[in-house]
Design goal:
By secondary structure, the protein is mostly helical. It is built from three helices and no strands. The chain has one domain. About 85% of the residues lie in helices and about 0% in strands. Helix 1 packs antiparallel against helix 2 and helix 2 runs antiparallel to helix 3. The longest helix is centred in the last third of the chain and has 27 residues. The mean pLDDT is about 90. Keywords: Membrane, Transmembrane, Transmembrane helix.
Length: about 90
């Protein structure tokens, strides 16, 4: 069960890296946007790992807390990064 978790976390890391490369091709990413994306990706990976491990051990409250705290935090960081640093610079790519 834990081996599957580590495998899926590796797959999610590859998806996050490919998403970053895709965003870099379509949007201008400065250091603030890259840092925000890195922090949100790390937070979402912690959310996935914490919640999976908690649910696997039978600690449903801890898993739900991990989903709320880390998952919502990661989505809020991503949303703020998108709105403040990525979306306004789409047309300045050329």
């Amino acid at each position: 069960m834990m081996g599957l978790q580590w495998y899926l976390m590796g797959v999610l890391t590859i998806f996050a890296w490919n998403g970053y490369l895709w965003l870099g091709r379509h949007y201008r990413l400065d250091w603030k946007a890259s840092l925000g994306l890195l922090i949100s990706a790390c937070t979402l990976l912690v959310c996935f790992g914490w919640s999976w491990a908690s649910f696997a051990e039978g600690e449903a409250r801890s898993g739900a807390m991990g989903l709320l705290l880390f998952g919502l935090g990661g989505l809020m960081i991503f949303s703020g990064t998108w709105r403040a640093f990525i979306r306004p610079k789409k047309h300045s790519l050329n």
